[in-house]
Amino acid sequence: MVFLREKEGLSRGSGRRIILWPAYFDSTLPRRLGRRVPRDMGVPSPKPEDVAEAARRAGYEAVVEESSYPRLWWRVRRRIVVLAPDDASKTDIIKAVATELRKIAAARRKRS
């Protein structure tokens, strides 16, 4: 598990920093509270570490940082900072990470 302060941890290579919140992938949340993928693409209550691992499996460099999601500001949560190529849209990154996150969740269910 990696917790870093602002602006540490990612290489200074080309690309831009994209912020991903676990709420984007949470199938238990409605869209008005921040879910950005269809319910069937999400997983219930994803952990930030799993989202970061999914981003790495999708081919992106990712770190976890302490922060609060603006729509759920009363919860102290963590965010995932992804270094993405300049030509990739945030929506494409979210979909790629959601696909990998589902694989991680399925593997975890099989082990249990």
TrEMBL record:
Predominant localisation class: cytoplasm
InterPro entries associated with the record: Signal_recog_particle_SRP19, SRP19-like_sf, SRP19_arc-type
Keyword Hydrolase on entry: no
UniProt xrefs under Pfam families: SRP19 (PF01922)
Keyword Nuclease: no
Listed GO biological process terms: SRP-dependent cotranslational protein targeting to membrane
Cell location: Cytoplasm
GO molecular function, one term: 7S RNA binding
GO-annotated cellular components: signal recognition particle
Coiled-coil portions: none
SUPFAM superfamilies with a match to the protein in the record: SRP19 (SSF69695)
Keywords: Cytoplasm, Ribonucleoprotein, RNA-binding, Signal recognition particle
Family note: Belongs to the SRP19 family.
Quaternary state and interactors: Part of the signal recognition particle protein translocation system, which is composed of SRP and FtsY. Archaeal SRP consists of a 7S RNA molecule of 300 nucleotides and two protein subunits: SRP54 and SRP19.
Purpose of the protein: Involved in targeting and insertion of nascent membrane proteins into the cytoplasmic membrane. Binds directly to 7S RNA and mediates binding of the 54 kDa subunit of the SRP.
Record's protein name: Signal recognition particle 19 kDa protein
